């Protein structure tokens, strides 16, 4: 069955265009990807096949196989996430990206012979060396018309008074930053994503430029409904649209630079029973007793899968536009890299890294696989949840996933969280720290728009402890989901803080609890073995409050050690910063970790210390999460929130750490436990003095 899920018929050029461009009619339909390079993945996927039950009428549509045109299903990418990394530089994302790009590599089929092979070789030559250069040249002229005015106005950065509240930048500089960002919007999806990516690289770009780029939004026009229907039908093996959906909202929920999203409801014969990918397959008494106890003590959410789905569809032709834009970016990055004053930025490497990020988002099967892995990691956790991906219907250009009912976290930040304010803040930090410290698989696009808040009723313990096999769940349409009912009560009060708070108080009184739902998992951060070792070494130095050593490690293991300016001064600055934190051990809850990390990135930029992008992604995620947490709960303490995760990490891998002589996590754990105990003791003494409990007056 797993091989059947892995082998799919290539429906049409609507789903995958091997040439990535609208070729002249003689060139169409003659280029195919090499299948030999994918044989290993298919064999591996089939070898570990595990039968999986689907609703009646669903398997028949998935057993279509063709020898000539074959594309990997999302299930094969899920298999890749279950494999262990074999090399120091390998990650799950790199494995999936390699397979994805190899699948669409332009080549002549091995089975072609004689005149047919010669004709295909001529077509391939014309496509690669005639057609593509012409299209890239035309695109270059379009971009030149947009960015030449930006280049000509560079002298404006030396005009105007300095603005102390805005990093002491000149008013002309701020105007030019805004002009540059507007040009990125005009340039299209690749440059919009470039600006959004650049906003997270405050180790390279000025803080004010990053702040302006962080507000970069897309006004990309939605592609036509006709194109959407054509692409979606291809994902469902050519079925008629009314045979796929009971309901389909023709107006997109959102339009991004790369894709747009619709809300729909699948036909009952196509919809999955809820949570089939994480149902328990254990029938022992101890496991079921534990599950029932946790449902009482931990307020376990009652999971009621949505009968609606979100349909994410790539814009037609976006892949070829991005590919040409990346080629142009790489050309200019190589030219700029020749300038002596900016060679430390290593712009060609940054363009390559950005290109990998873009390519990951251009294959929606990778996002489906990420969702599956996140759901597996959070299977037994209550802090956050991820939508169920319908992998059998997800393709390179289409992602079908469970519709996440919820209200964006941004609404709670604007209107307040009422009685749930502290819970929402602590659950967001807890989920992020578990991703970072336990899973090494972090959602890399965390912002309030990608975090939804829903409300749930606690799951009731089951009286039947000896369940045999998996717990059977009725179809979603037969389960009462109160989530949408609660959210519909809350939505009318957006912008009306008093009524919003009053309704939240009612919801709290009725026994509902909040839960975060993370969406848009196309980008993740996973440290490879080398980077993780560097991270742990740096963590150990900070845990020992040895800032000087931490500074030297950052310089020695950065991407360009020879380009670092004043390594000794940088290390001394790090030592001063770390000692300042050490002096406030008992008041760490009042310290903003994001402020400290911002100072570190400022020093990194000043001394030309080129950090790995994965490190910076983690730092930016901490910025965002702590900022969100403090906006909801000013007393949030990132270090205290990490204490339960450190306890679990110590229980899981404490023996391995001790065997390897790594006591950094143990030191942090013991230090935080001591700080919490001392803080509790001080608070108790202050309370006794305040209420005259030490020597009460008689």
Automatic annotation (TrEMBL):
Pfam families assigned to the protein according to its UniProt record, in alphabetical order: ABC1
Mind telling me what this protein is named? ABC1 atypical kinase-like domain-containing protein
Q: Family assignment?
A: Belongs to the protein kinase superfamily. ADCK protein kinase family.
Domain ABC1 atypical kinase-like, which positions? 216-269, 307-454
Q: Which organism is it from?
A: Lasiosphaeria ovina
InterPro entries xrefs: ABC1_dom, ADCK2_dom, ADCK_kinase, Kinase-like_dom_sf
Q: List the record's Gene Ontology CC terms alphabetically.
A: mitochondrion
């Amino acid at each position: 069955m797993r091989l059947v899920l892995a082998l799919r018929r290539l429906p049409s050029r609507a789903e995958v265009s091997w040439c990535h461009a609208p070729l002249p009619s003689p060139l169409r339909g003659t280029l195919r990807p090499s299948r030999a390079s994918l044989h290993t993945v298919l064999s591996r996927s089939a070898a570990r096949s595990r039968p999986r039950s689907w609703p009646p009428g669903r398997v028949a549509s998935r057993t279509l196989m063709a020898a000539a045109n074959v594309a990997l299903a999302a299930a094969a990418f899920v298999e890749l996430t279950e494999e262990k990394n074999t090399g120091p530089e390998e990650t799950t994302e790199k494995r999936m990206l390699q397979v994805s790009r190899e699948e669409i590599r332009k080549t002549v089929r091995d089975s072609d012979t004689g005149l047919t092979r010669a004709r295909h070789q001529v077509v391939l030559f014309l496509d690669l060396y005639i057609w593509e250069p012409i299209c890239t040249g035309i695109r270059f002229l379009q971009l030149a018309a947009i960015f030449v005015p930006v280049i000509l106005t560079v002298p404006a950065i030396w005009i105007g008074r300095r603005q102390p509240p805005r990093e002491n930048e000149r008013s002309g500089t701020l105007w030019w930053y805004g002009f540059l960002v507007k040009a990125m919007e005009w340039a299209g999806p690749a440059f919009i994503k470039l600006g959004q990516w650049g906003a997270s690289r405050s180790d390279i770009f000025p803080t004010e430029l990053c702040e302006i780029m962080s507000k970069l939004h897309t006004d990309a026009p939605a592609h036509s409904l006709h194109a959407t229907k054509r692409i979606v039908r291809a994902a469902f093996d050519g079925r008629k649209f009314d045979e796929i959906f009971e309901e389909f909202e023709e107006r997109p929920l959102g339009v991004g630079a790369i894709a747009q999203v619709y809300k729909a409801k699948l036909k009952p014969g196509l919809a999955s029973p809820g949570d089939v990918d994480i149902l328990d397959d254990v029938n022992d008494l101890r496991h079921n007793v534990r599950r029932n106890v946790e449902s009482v003590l931990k307020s376990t959410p009652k999971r009621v899968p949505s009968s609606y789905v979100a349909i994410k569809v790539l814009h037609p032709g976006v892949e070829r536009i991005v590919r040409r834009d990346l080629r142009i970016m790489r050309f200019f990055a190589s030219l700029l890299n020749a300038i002596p004053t900016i060679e430390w930025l290593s712009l060609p490497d940054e363009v390559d890294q950005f290109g990998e990020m873009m390519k990951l988002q251009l294959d929606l099967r990778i996002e489906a696989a990420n969702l599956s892995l996140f759901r597996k990691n959070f299977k037994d956790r209550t802090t956050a949840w991820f939508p169920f991906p319908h992998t059998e219907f997800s393709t390179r250009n289409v992602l079908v996933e469970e519709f996440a009912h919820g209200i964006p976290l941004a609404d709670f930040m604007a209107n307040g969280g009422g009685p749930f304010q502290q819970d929402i803040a602590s659950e967001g930090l807890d989920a992020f720290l578990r991703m970072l410290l336990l899973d090494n698989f972090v959602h890399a696009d965390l912002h309030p728009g990608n975090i939804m808040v829903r409300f749930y009723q606690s799951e009731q313990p089951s009286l039947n402890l000896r369940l045999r096999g998996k717990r059977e769940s009725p179809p979603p349409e037969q389960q009462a989901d109160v989530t949408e009912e609660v959210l519909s009560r809350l939505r009318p009060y957006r912008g009306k803080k008093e009524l919003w708070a009053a309704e939240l108080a009612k919801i709290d009184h009725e026994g509902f609890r909040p839960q975060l739902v993370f969406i848009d998992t196309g980008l993740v951060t996973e440290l490879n073995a080398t980077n993780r070792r560097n991270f742990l070494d740096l963590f150990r130095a900070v845990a020992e409050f040895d800032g000087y050593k931490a500074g030297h490690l950052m310089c020695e293991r950065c991407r360009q050690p020879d380009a670092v300016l004043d390594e000794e001064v940088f290390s001394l600055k790090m030592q001063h910063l770390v000692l300042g934190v050490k002096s406030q051990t008992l008041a760490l809850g009042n310290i903003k970790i994001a402020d400290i990390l911002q100072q570190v990135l400022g020093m990194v930029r000043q001394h030309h210390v080129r950090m790995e992008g994965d490190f910076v992604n983690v730092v930016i995620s901490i910025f965002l999460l702590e900022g969100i947490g403090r906006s909801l709960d000013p007393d949030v303490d990132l270090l205290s929130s990490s204490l339960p995760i450190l306890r679990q990490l110590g229980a899981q891998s404490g023996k391995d750490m001790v065997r390897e002589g790594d006591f950094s996590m143990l030191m942090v754990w013991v230090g935080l436990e001591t700080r919490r105990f001392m803080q509790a003791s001080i608070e108790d003494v202050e309370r006794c003095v305040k209420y005259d409990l030490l020597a009460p007056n008689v």
